[in-house]
Amino acid sequence: MRILMDDRGKKYILDEGQDFHNDLGIIKKEELENCVPGDILKTHKEHEVKVIQANVNDFIELMERKCSILLPKDIGIVIAYTGLGCGDKVVDAGTGAGAIALHFANVVGKEGEVHSYEIREDFTKIAQKNVKQFGFDNITIKNQDIKEGIDEEEVDLIFLDLPKPYEMMESVFDALKSGGWLAVYAPYIEQVQILNRIAKKIGFNEINTIECILREMEVKSKGTRPKTRMVGHTGYLSFARKL
Amino acid sequence: MRILMDDRGKKYILDEGQDFHNDLGIIKKEELENCVPGDILKTHKEHEVKVIQANVNDFIELMERKCSILLPKDIGIVIAYTGLGCGDKVVDAGTGAGAIALHFANVVGKEGEVHSYEIREDFTKIAQKNVKQFGFDNITIKNQDIKEGIDEEEVDLIFLDLPKPYEMMESVFDALKSGGWLAVYAPYIEQVQILNRIAKKIGFNEINTIECILREMEVKSKGTRPKTRMVGHTGYLSFARKL
Amino acid sequence: MRILMDDRGKKYILDEGQDFHNDLGIIKKEELENCVPGDILKTHKEHEVKVIQANVNDFIELMERKCSILLPKDIGIVIAYTGLGCGDKVVDAGTGAGAIALHFANVVGKEGEVHSYEIREDFTKIAQKNVKQFGFDNITIKNQDIKEGIDEEEVDLIFLDLPKPYEMMESVFDALKSGGWLAVYAPYIEQVQILNRIAKKIGFNEINTIECILREMEVKSKGTRPKTRMVGHTGYLSFARKL
Amino acid sequence: MRILMDDRGKKYILDEGQDFHNDLGIIKKEELENCVPGDILKTHKEHEVKVIQANVNDFIELMERKCSILLPKDIGIVIAYTGLGCGDKVVDAGTGAGAIALHFANVVGKEGEVHSYEIREDFTKIAQKNVKQFGFDNITIKNQDIKEGIDEEEVDLIFLDLPKPYEMMESVFDALKSGGWLAVYAPYIEQVQILNRIAKKIGFNEINTIECILREMEVKSKGTRPKTRMVGHTGYLSFARKL
């Protein structure tokens, strides 16, 4: 997928078949049609606009999303802790705008599969539109309550971002392959407490909960320091493995 | 790759063609030969030993490594921040025991490539052995100084874990494809300061440095709290993009 | 010092000899004159206003300040690390609005002394007004550059919050009593690096630098978690002792 | 109180009327008798030993303690948040070895008072010995269960470090003066949750809970970084004010 970046660093989705226009000028659709990543176009006001091959983060930043989305720090830790890789089968719920499904799909590739459950119809539609727009065909977004059951079997990773992630532990356990992981994102410690107790009872192994605090550094000629404002907390990440 | 786990949760690499034996007993090589993940074997002392499909973390924990290795928290953040995905081309240096190359290879899959530079011959050999043992064939470990030049072109991600990562910024820039990322792991803030300055001068974009502080939670019947001991610092992660 | 708190929890300095009035109504000066902490007064609109014995934090929150002030977390760590106590002699620079001088004065009491150096005349005046208003008479605010020399001798604690705190290390060392502490607040790591090197050269002992990351917890019926926004960094605290 | 420091930086309590001896040699009691802070003595093996005026931290480090003690970071935050000052009246429980009582006594001075409750007789005796040895006479250590009642009135600060700090909220509220603070140290989040609920019900104001994460910096010629190991968690600090 190609995106555009103007000379202030602002990025835009390239809408095929349409002129690009912002406050820095216009680029005709004919010119956009054949451009390739690396090309530098010019608006009629002589501002440079670069064509960029979007990666999954570029797109997520620009796509429609009516809900909050997970930060890369949390997504990355889920991927590395569970050893998610190319070819894996993933289930996630709830989909939201589809950001985490896109990240998983990016990793598991064409030979892998991502099945994403979303109970709200409006989010399902947004996510489906986003997935289609980015061009991934290894994601299925279902307007389905994961509490009703998990259709998939022999799953490598089940990721839950739900208010009560502990309500479906048995079907999660059944759907996982031996060695597979459950990963849960939950903002409140009460959710973690219940989840841990139930996961233990059902027979999960390697149960643990972590929290990732991310500090951004400010490296300027004036001096170096951690940024003065930061995200204090997103959510706890809990892991449990079927062994 | 299959590994074994005894009833205390301890894991072992399954050495094909050899009996398994530890303090809990022996399992004959004939029995090991045909076991599949999920099987439960018994030692001659009647202890259960489970056969597990190893993921990349299981293996890294068990493999030979004569040097410190990156933690999953840092690896995961590199993957998610740079949007690394299936099919991508990665260069990393220095290889060490090969842990990060294994993680990258796990993500990029058969259609992707990982090229890993290591200046020390002994580490190169350990890493090559580890890669072969895990069974990945998308990794090339080279006993070569990355300062001498980067052989690869149109690279999606170059990852550096070196004392002076800023010495090869120009060849890094040249080797990256448009939109590609440089990610650098460096324990000291001085490395970050020099790196930032040089990356800016060479023309990199989206330069930023972060630090991930990971807190493990203790969830017990006695109560819930962050663990009382923790890793205080591993390294700063710096990112720069060729746009 | 008495302050007023309305029924929304908002606090106000009680200006002696003047009526109190806000959007919730008016209280006549005659009524305010003889009130004591614990009293509940009423505005003419029947809103309750409580009389409170102000502590140093109440006052600092309400007083005039044209500059940023240190957070209690950093002030408290300086006090506890250096073992500051009742009767001690303290020097600090720069004064700013006087917040840290007020905190120190609160601890050292009538038998102690706080001498505060401020290079800017406008800040000096604000701080002097604040100190007088709160009623402390153990603080001297001087419109004087501490680089020119420290007038005091046998000091227990010298606290510096200056752009170049390392420029006056020798006179700091001379002014301290044996066993006395230097404490430095500095936002940038470069300041810390220079300070550490010079402090070592001059003969300071027990040199160390820390950073305090404060997390506020949100304890609600909805759930418990760290607050989602937080202060990422204020400054590094460096300590050095004359032994 | 005078202490001794040998040329390796190790500190020792000066036992009046006794020779000093360690592996670096002996100093006769006659010589110790009249030494003053700043003096440098010599052992018979020609090793230098310095006489130092101990502050409260020096002594706490050296005193007998059969239990874990609070870290300065947490003590300092309690002092600064509650605005504790010279002349204040403090109640604390449980005493433990007396470390926090010593810190409070150091701040409140001769005109202030610290009343410390300890249920265990052995700890009470250790704490009483420690207080006497350091020479403070503004501390009363009582071998008494604070749950049975608080003898003091019009208290400025009540500090609790107990397994169930929420069991005595009403008598805490009664004992505090208007404007006074309750501060609670509790390692587990469950303690915090119950405490918050009860404090609210009883009528406390300005209820809040924080956690202080302290990072030590390593500033060496090799480079600057946060230390690689750190204390992950000590306890949550909860505050509630009677207004």
Unreliable stretches of chain A (pLDDT < 50, length at least 5) are none
Task: Tell me the count of domains of chain A.
Answer: 2
Order of helices and strands of chain A: EEEEHEEHHEHEHEEHEHEEEE
Number of extended strands of chain A: 15
Name of the level-1 CATH class of the largest domain in chain A:
Alpha Beta
The N- and C-terminal alpha carbons of chain A lie at a distance of: 39 Å
Strand content of chain A: 25-35%
Q: Return the structural class of chain A.
A: alpha/beta
Task: State the helix count of chain A.
Answer: 7
Structural overview:
The structure is a homotetramer of 243-residue chains. Chain A has 243 residues and is α/β, with parallel strands linked by helices. Chain A folds into two domains: 2-54, Vcp-like ATPase, Chain A, domain 2 (Roll); 59-241, Rossmann fold (3-Layer(aba) Sandwich), CATH 3.40.50. The first copy, chain A, contains seven helices and 15 strands. Chain A has helices spanning 29-33, 56-62, 72-82, 99-108, 121-134, 169-175, 189-202; strands spanning 2-6, 11-13, 20-22, 25-27, 40-42, 48-53, 89-93, 113-117, 139-142, 155-160, 176-186, 205-220, 223-226, 229-231, 236-241. In chain A, the strands form three sheets. Chain A has an eight-stranded mixed sheet, sandwiched between helices. In chain A, a hairpin with a 4-residue loop joins β1 (2-6) and β2. The first copy, chain A, is globular, with a radius of gyration of 21 Å. The relative contact order of chain A is 0.12. The model of chain A has no long low-confidence stretch (mean pLDDT 96). Chains in contact: A-B, A-C, B-D, C-D. At the C-D interface, β6, α2, α3, α4 and β11 of C face β6, α2, α3, α4 and β11 of D.
